[in-house]
Amino acid sequence: MPDIESNFLNNTTVADVLDDVEGNDLLQSLADVTVPRALKDECPPEDLAHRQFEDAEFWRRFAPYADVSRDEFLDYRFQNKKSVQNVDQLADLLDGVADPKFIQDVKTGLDQAPMNMRISPYLLSLIDWDEPYRDPIRIQFIPVASSRMPDHPKLELDSLHEQDDSPTSGLVHRYPDKALFLPLDVCPVYCRFCTRSYAIGGDTDMVDKVSYSPKSDRWRSAFAYIASRPELEDIVISGGDMFMMPANKLEELGMTLLAIPHIRRIRFASKGPAVMPMKILTDQKWFDALCRVVDKGREMAKEVCLHTHFNSTNEITDISRKAMNKLFKRGVQVRNQAVLMRRVNDSSTEMTNLVKQLSYMNVQPYYVYQHDMVQGVEDLRTTVRHTIELERHVRGSTAGFNTPTFVNDVPGGGGKRDVHSFDHYDPITGISVYRSPAVSDKVYLYFDPLHLLPEEGQQRWSREYEHEAMIREALCAADALKLERAVG
After folding, report:
1. Same domain, 172 and 267
2. Which of 374, 393, 415 is the last residue of a domain?
3. Final residue belonging to a domain, choices 385, 415, 445
4. Statement: the pTM of the whole predicted model exceeds 0.85
5. Whether residue 390 sits in one domain with residue 264
6. Would you say residue 454 lies in a domain?
7. Which one, of 88, 192, 194, 197, lies nearest residue 139 by Cα?
């Protein structure tokens, strides 16, 4: 028989392990219980890094904000007012902080970018200005010309063909029971990798934007369409960003959709919690409006939740944790949709830490997106092969319901497909073939970034006459030659 005593750890008790047994009646009742011997080695401290949240006045380390008080920094009005919106403002702010050559690199980068710049003091103060080229926050929000690479020859500005599926301006009806409503076209920050660079923010030297300004006639037209289609049950509200919506308009929008009998689920999508979390803490009027919509939905047995975009643990501080806890305590469910980006979150260590830290502050990791084929950000995209390998490492690191699904929102409007679910993938040419039967009978193609392909693939793409041949090879391997292509 096994030695029972050997199954215990040197007579260690619960009181020896936990610091907070005193004063807790439930734990006190376990205080003298001997702890069974563990079957696994104790995890190293770095495996618990996701439990650490920066709670110092970190912004004071950034010279321009050295004298900004906690109350002022946490005021969402300060964050909005002081957000940097052009390179001259950035140059003034970084005078004596960053290398002037870096500022010139940004200026040239913005001249070539499809998105304008808007970045909050919160993010600016978290960037490592000693190493801005390597910083994952800078990489996401501030373009530099020196890292720009040529766009893939099959790239389109509206890569997801959202406008093709729009019965009225700013409403996308692609999936049978779901519609995407874009009520406005401004955000608290502008992401370099935005898939709606065709519409979000003002015009740039590269792109004349489609306008989704918050006009009542446009909203009413969208509401009328939604009300007229009984198959619609799920509405995603994105844009643009609800963080920029006045409280009364946010409530009007949510309550109108809830009043439509067949609508069962509403998802407010916002980058705000990741880039300006203090709004949740200090804009009580806006917070209360959101909660009233959530509460009304629950009263009607309808789901109203918030989807956000944390992409890196560098974005997360104790301000984030407090904001997410405030939402959680009020019954607001928050899910995260990360975008996979090179040098931001494409390592298994960083992605696993992000997933665990989100879970620790009550945010459910929901999706990780294969980077869309967006203009001007080829340096950020990964290959499908890399994404599949990354998912392999992340899965099993935590509970299944807290493990995100890695998806490819395929070009041409096929919608989100599990990244593994291609009919064929050639890592040499970087062409993956997907079908989306619930959406259409077309075939959908995604193209890996050329600079990450092996030499053979790069050489073939360098010869324009080979492009069609490579695509036909992939379609033939997928037994999809006879299907209509959505792109390519």
Report:
1. yes
2. 415
3. 415
4. yes
5. yes
6. no
7. 192
In-domain check, residue 456? no
Q: Are residues 70 and 217 in the same domain?
A: no
Domain of residue 15, residue span = 4-42
Q: How many residues does the chain have?
A: 488
Question: SS in 3 state form for the chain?
Answer: CCCHHHHEEEEEEHHHHCCCCCCCHHHHCCCCCEEECCCCCCCCHHHHHHHCCCCCCHHHHCHHHCCCCHHHHCCHHHHHHCCECCHHHHHHHCCCCCCHHHHHHHHHHHHCCCCCCCECHHHHHHCCCCCCCCCHHHHHHCCCHHHCCCCCCCCCCCCCCCHHHCCECCEEECCCCEEEECCCCCCCCCCCCCCCCCCCCCCCCCCCCCCCCCCHHHHHHHHHHHHHCCCCCEEEECCCCHHHCCHHHHHHHHHHHHHCCCCCEEEEECCHHHHCCHHHHHCHHHHHHHHHHHHHHHHCCCEEEEEECCCCHHHCCHHHHHHHHHHHHCCCCEEEEEECCCCCCCCHHHHHHHHHHHHHCCEEEEEEECCCCCCCCHHHCCCHHHHHHHHHHHCCCCCHHHCCEEEEEECCCCEEEECCCCCEEECCCCEEEEECCCCCCCEEEEECCHHHCCHHHHHHHCCHHHHHHHHHHHHHHCCCCCCCECCC
Domain co-membership, 36 together with 64: no
Residue entry with tokens 């070539």: 112
Residue 420 within a domain: no
Domain count, the chain: 3
Q: Show the tokens assigned to 298.
A: 């629950």
- Taking only the tens of pLDDT, the chain with its 488 residues reads 344 444 445 678 888 878 777 778 888 888 888 888 888 888 888 889 999 999 999 999 999 999 999 999 999 999 999 999 999 999 999 999 999 999 999 999 998 887 788 999 999 999 999 999 999 999 999 999 999 999 999 988 676 777 788 899 889 998 899 999 989 888 899 898 887 666 555 555 555 534 456 668 889 999 999 999 999 999 999 878 899 999 999 999 999 999 999 999 999 999 999 999 999 999 999 999 999 999 999 999 999 999 999 999 999 999 999 999 999 999 999 999 999 999 999 999 999 999 999 999 999 999 999 999 988 899 999 999 999 999 999 999 999 999 999 999 999 989 999 999 999 999 999 999 999 999 999 999 999 999 999 999 999 999 999 999 999 999 999 999 999 999 87
Tokens of 51: 């439990």
Residue with tokens 């959202």: 162
Residue 437 forms part of a structural domain: no
Is 285 found in the same domain as 355? yes
Per the rule left: phi > 0, alpha: psi between -120 and 50, beta: everything else, 18 is: beta
